[in-house]
What does this fold into?
Amino acid sequence: MEVRTVDARTTAVVRTTTTGAMLPQVLGEGYGEIMRYLARTGIEAAGPPFSLYHNMDMEHLDVELGFPVWEPPEAEGRIKASTLPGGRAAVAVHVGPYETLDETYRKLMDYVEQEGLKTEPFMYEMYLNDPDEVAPEQLQTEVYFPLRD
It folds into this structure.
């Protein structure tokens, strides 16, 4: 756990509402849609995929999923330009299956509370490797809680 200062990043995203149970399928479809768009338009990804959660209502999860990009995309269908926020963030790296991310979330929430930090009402995850290429135990996910000053 640590507090980092992160730069704002331009992103290509799909924003949707789903259930927690449908999230893996929704993320997979959305990332595929964005990757096809990037390939077709020649826009390059500038980092790993992410998902930004505007709430934690697992029945009506408001999620923005996408990729940082070097240039803002033109809106097309569900794909829009957005921004990952810059500023200070409490960050933890989760190593292991996505199904155990709640453990890292709990530890990060405890850290934030112990340090007396105030968080924004959203958080995001960056997926540092590909579940199609590594075993679940080797997955690496950075969890970000943006902080209020």
